[in-house]
Design brief:
Chain lengths: 186, 186, 186, 186
DNA sequence: TATGAATGAGGCTTCATTCAT
DNA sequence: GATGAATGAAGCCTCATTCAT
């Protein structure tokens, strides 16, 4: 019984998916264990508390979002239009068929009153989102207005993801959000 | 031993506030009892399960939102412009200083995988929102486009409320949302 | 299932006996529950943590010791000799057939590194012991020497109780301790 | 992968110190491992159970006590007075600044109901103590009374060590104990 | 020898719920 | 109607122990 069954990364990946779908509280250590093929107690070999594991999933999500979405804002070789296209498409692909919507938003709902240590990570994620999108827009709109437009676009995107939890037809709202984003440099 | 300390409505009001601030799971029956001046066991005189109580808070929230927001869309005596102004202002007032943001959105995050019976009520709330806002806009935009615009506005509003959980500066995004709503008939 | 099965005092009494015999750690909440006829979870109706329950047992032990032992030092009607006789006899009766010896000493071993909040209660107990015995002796020996003699007598008593854990023949050592105590005013 | 990091003796030494300070239960195999520079699993190369390791620490403690204390009772070249002086001084040095007091006494508190296999070793330690001290005294007092006096002295010493856990001022009581011991042949 | 991964039992605690009074 | 006592299931976490590498 010392056969390696998974890895720190493996645990993070399974936990991330479960947290995204069911939230922090409704995901038990036993659930995560089952998903990894471990017993609940064995997860403590990799993480010393559930909260530390949650923190690791948030870090991972930030890195993935950077790779999938935010980084496209800084591609030196691309025009602003192209960067915006890539940004919007990155969002579409990132949340496509992603059960549970946005991990960060889900945590934002739970973290406020019970996991205050996680709030800064979540805030950082949203800031990166706004900052990178504003970076694309600021040549056209100036920094101040670009930040406003970026924040509004983020809000619409997150709102659409929320509505999709209740009614799948809201997927159309998400698409319109991406579409309207493109028209900002259209 | 039977002095009436509160009422069904009293319990609902306290529970609603707690659910909005802390979420369904993180609000215990004991918390609600404390807020009402009851012991947790006594709540079962009014509601047979916690979920039934939650359901009652959702119904109440719908009614309040109708009164504060949605009904303004159907005021026969008012112009569409005036209705839209009232609608936007209703939203502002409804969520002003409301700790925890939107009860319905909060439940949407928790209800999906764990309280499926509540989803229809939540869906109904968002439909009422879209339907009433679209009612104001459809003379100008036609029904189909009016529904889209209404849904997008709802998404932006909910997204802004979410961002406010993480960073209070997002209040500005909420205001811009109301402002842009008005310009739809400007 | 709402039949009263025990009381706060009942829980304290059972817990005290188990803590004395088996120590704090080796007594589980389930053990205490079993002794009371409760489930482990039900104990939390009376005490919010195991440590709080432990604290209550220490308070109780102090009160019992005052009644059985320490108070005899302050009986106005009695001569010093008589007080000393009562004091020594109180000790004998208090620890007679008391499985586990002295609750306070047992806790002193565990409390140091893991339950620091309990140390002051334990210290208080030993101080009361020394203070009351010295009160009997100080007319004869002066306060300073009386405090020394009292502390030495306490040490011998506690040491004898410890040895009895290992070898029941040490009961004789406990008796000699009481005997030598009497000869202090002999 | 097989570099020797420590030895059986090394593990015993570290474990002994931890058991003395924190007790058997509150010392985890991981703690011992950390102290030795090993992982907890590696300790099982030297000892097949935690209890066996505990047993080894008790054996070691007995040997050290013999060397430091008990043997002085049998020094053929010395007078009884000198032997007693050495015995008392051995005790003083042995427990001087020894965090946690007497390993054997600590185990006596835990071992009774949970580690019965260790009781004989502990009993043996106390017997050696009494036997060797009585050996010094028996020419003067006769065997029977010498055994009593030795047991009483041991009790007082252990009691003083216990009181030191609660209040460091009890160090004076320990010193008086050694002093009174000397006066037995004074 | 030493490691790191895994186990499984057990511990404390929380909580929705029930019910006799 | 309200209470307080009790339940039982579940949750997080710890730890001695095992074992393939």
């Amino acid at each position: 019984m010392a056969i390696r069954k998974t890895s720190r990364q493996g645990v993070i990946d399974h936990a991330l998916r479960l947290f995204r779908r069911n939230g922090y509280h409704y995901t038990s250590m036993a659930d995560i264990g089952t998903a990894c093929g471990l017993l609940k107690g064995s997860i403590y070999h990799y993480f010393s508390t559930k909260e530390e594991l949650a923190s690791a999933t948030l870090e991972k999500e930030i890195n993935v979002a950077k790779e999938h979405i935010f980084n496209s804002a800084y591609q030196e070789g691309n025009s602003d239009q192209q960067r915006l296209i890539d940004f919007a498409e990155g969002i579409s692909l990132h949340f496509k068929d992603r059960e549970g919507g946005c991990l960060m938003a889900n945590f934002a709902f739970e973290a406020g009153n019970t996991l205050p240590e996680l709030m800064p990570i979540i805030a950082h994620y949203f800031e990166e989102w706004v900052e990178s999108l504003a970076h694309i827009l600021e040549k056209r709109y100036g920094r101040h207005r670009a930040l406003e437009l970026a924040a509004d676009s983020l809000a619409r995107t997150q709102g659409a993801l929320l509505l999709m939890k209740v009614d799948n037809r809201a997927q159309a709202a998400l698409q319109r959000t991406q579409h309207d984003m493109l028209s900002l440099l259209g």
